[in-house]
């Protein structure tokens, strides 16, 4: 089965993850906000030489390393665009799909039939451009972050950035070095730092089964309060005009190391929501006005969809799509079409998408069976209700997942979910590391279908690969010992607090 690198048509292995001229992609300076040990594919660690938080060029290099290692490129057809995906004439009997495919070099359109289809176009599909009053009269430049590439051309300008998610924060920080920036936000946000406690990557510290245990034992309000206190120790979110009314874990996280620095330097000024535009300025909902605005950057997110599929196959309304465990359309008669990567995790997307693909491969081969339509719909409704209870109502919060619970859920379908109790009796050192250490993707290659003999060693050497690119100057070994001791104490304190809470309340 060929793989079409196709919607939009890409010329190489990259998706939108690296900077390329002339097509949809990240900005030139974009650095990934998940660390290499947490974002790698589960049977192929990212090279130890690579930085922990990789520039987009390193992400592209890793994709090529992975594709070359497993011999994947010969199966990929570049420069082809999938125009439509429809049920084949014999779909009821075979589950097959008819695709219209355009060769972008010859312009030839052909019809081809496939046994299975994976829709991997993600949720950054179409720009969300709100209709602000007066925006048509504004004479300055208006650009969406989808089309923003770098700060060139903005030198000495006055710029309004609308939205304080990850793209908005990155744009405000970069533009704040060469321009005066006004950062407009409706609700505010909590800001996480890539470099977290003791200098470790954020996700290495917080994505642990011990942390998940504590979150399950105590109310969300307690977790939100503790996290807010921790984040405010770095900078007071209220003092900086960023504090929202909701809790830390009731909104998708914004990761930005430099925004507080830009604010305290006066390069970025935080403002409330937009009331209206004028020909050369902006009025905000608090009545304040900024004139002589040269440009507006819309960091207002995306509307996802599948325009190449008939609505009878998969339908999206208000950024909501009905998928069993965010993968399978529940009303199809065969599990031969799946959606991969259409979710927004608190964590890395790549290993989750990989696990979705592993599940799909087993389903399409008939090695695992999906439940009845009723059970699939029940699961969909339960997830939607849980999301509504937890998150702020927003077009953005329709496909949220937590890394460990969702990975475990997918792994259970495959048969590769780690059983810590069994592992403890066989290999207690490994079980302790898996429970108290970072929950890396390697945990899902220890056993079951697709197991990898290097998984155990990869789990124990995470900190070695983390430290390698930082070891550019020899220092006394005490710093490494202190890091390990800190994490052990941190884990013990977390567990003690969680247990005491259950006993007392």
Description:
With 505 residues, this protein is of the alpha/beta class. It has helices at residues 36-39, 56-69, 91-94, 166-175, 202-206, 209-217, 220-234, 259-264, 350-364, 373-390, 403-414, 420-426, 428-436, 455-460, 462-467, 478-504; strands at residues 3-4, 76-77, 80-87, 97-103, 109-114, 117-119, 126-127, 141-144, 158-162, 180-184, 191-192, 254-255, 268-271, 274-277, 282-284, 289-290, 295-298, 302-303, 316-317, 320-321, 337-339, 344-346, 400-402. The chain has 16 helices and 23 strands. Helix 9 (350-364) runs parallel beside helix 11 and helix 12 (420-426) runs antiparallel to helix 13. The protein starts with a strand and ends with a helix. Mean pLDDT is 90; it is low at 18-23.
Which tags fit this structure?
505 residues; alpha/beta; five-stranded parallel β-sheet; three-stranded antiparallel β-sheet; 16 helices; globular
Broad structural category: alpha/beta
Largest sheet: 5 strands, parallel
- Rounded radius of gyration (Å): 24 Å
The oligomeric state of the chains shown is single chain
- Strand segment count: 23
Q: How widely separated are the two ends?
A: 56 Å
* Coarse morphology: globular
Topology readout:
Blueprint: E1 3-4, H1 36-39, H2 56-69, E2 76-77, E3 80-87, H3 91-94, E4 97-103, E5 109-114, E6 117-119, E7 126-127, E8 141-144, E9 158-162, H4 166-175, E10 180-184, E11 191-192, H5 202-206, H6 209-217, H7 220-234, E12 254-255, H8 259-264, E13 268-271, E14 274-277, E15 282-284, E16 289-290, E17 295-298, E18 302-303, E19 316-317, E20 320-321, E21 337-339, E22 344-346, H9 350-364, H10 373-390, E23 400-402, H11 403-414, H12 420-426, H13 428-436, H14 455-460, H15 462-467, H16 478-504
Parallel strand pairs: 1-2, 6-21, 8-17, 9-10, 9-17, 10-13, 11-12, 22-23
Antiparallel strand pairs: 3-4, 4-5, 7-18, 14-15, 15-16, 19-20
Helix pairs in contact: 6-16, 9-11, 12-13
